[in-house]
Backbone:
C-alpha cells in the first residue's frame, strides 16, 4: 500500500474530522460502525438459543478470567460455530452466569468491513 493510498484511507475513516484528543474513546466511532453489541442483542432476545456449545463457552470463560494470556481467538472454517460461542457467552453475561470480572459488554467486530 502506497503512502497516498494510506492517506486516502485515513481521510475516509476520519470523514474530515481532525484528531484533537489523546484519548481513543473520544475519537472515532469504530465500534458503532463496525461492531455489533451482542450483549444488547441478548437483552432484547434477538439471539437464537445456543445448543451444544456449553463446553466451548465454558472454556472461553475460563480463558478470559485468567490474569495472563487471556486472549481467546476463535478460528475455524465458516459454519463451525464461532459466532454461536460468542452469542452463548453474551447470553451468559446478560444472565450473570459468568464471574464478576466478565460482566459487561461483548462486541462482535467485523474485520472485513474495517
Residues:
Amino acid at each position: 500500500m502506497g503512502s497516498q493510498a494510506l492517506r486516502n484511507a485515513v481521510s475516509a475513516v476520519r470523514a474530515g474530522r481532525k484528531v484533537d484528543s489523546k484519548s481513543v474513546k473520544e475519537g472515532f466511532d469504530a465500534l458503532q460502525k463496525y461492531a455489533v453489541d451482542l450483549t444488547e442483542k441478548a437483552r432484547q432476545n434477538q439471539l437464537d438459543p445456543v445448543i451444544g456449545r456449553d463446553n466451548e463457552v465454558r472454556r472461553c470463560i475460563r480463558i478470559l478470567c485468567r490474569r495472563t494470556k487471556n486472549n481467546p481467538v476463535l478460528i475455524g472454517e465458516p459454519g463451525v460455530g464461532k459466532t454461536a460461542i460468542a452469542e452463548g457467552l453474551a447470553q451468559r453475561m446478560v444472565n450473570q452466569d459468568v464471574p464478576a470480572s466478565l460482566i459487561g459488554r461483548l462486541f462482535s467486530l467485523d474485520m472485513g468491513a474495517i
Residues 29-109 form a domain with the Rossmann fold fold (CATH 3.40.50.300).
